[in-house]
Specification:
Layout (H helix, E strand, L loop, with lengths): L2 H11 L2 H7 L5 H11 L13 H19 L3 H47 L1
Length: about 120
């Protein structure tokens, strides 16, 4: 197995390295050179490890979201969605009424100008 293939395996086993590259903290080239010089068992790789606190923060965030979802009362949620739908329907009616009134005004103006033309001839 080539050194490059060994590094690919090493990188696959240590998925946190790809996260570091995505965040711009290092490059694959730098990681490969470090691997080429020191190998996979050297203490240098501890500097590339992500702190455990960050991992807990994300898992804690997910846990809190799941706990919040568990505490949702579905009956109240349905009730609120129904109220929101009624409010949106009301706003839609108002918008339609306004547009109909504008159309009526423009139609009246057109009729008035048609009548005036008729008498002007």
């Amino acid at each position: 197995m080539s050194k490059k293939d060994e590094f690919k395996e090493f990188a696959y086993k240590n998925k946190h390295l790809s996260k570091l590259v995505q965040e711009g903290k290092t490059t694959w080239q730098q990681l490969y050179e470090t691997y080429d010089i020191y190998g996979s068992d050297n203490e240098i790789w501890k500097t590339y490890e992500t702190p455990k606190k960050e991992e807990h923060k994300t898992s804690d965030g997910v846990k809190s979201i799941l706990n919040n979802l568990k505490n949702i009362d579905m009956d109240k949620l349905e009730e609120n969605i129904g109220s929101l739908q009624k409010a949106l329907g009301f706003l839609e009616e108002i918008a339609l009424t306004r547009s109909e009134k504008k159309e009526e005004k423009t139609n009246k103006k057109k009729k008035n100008t048609e009548i005036e033309r008729f008498f002007d001839d």
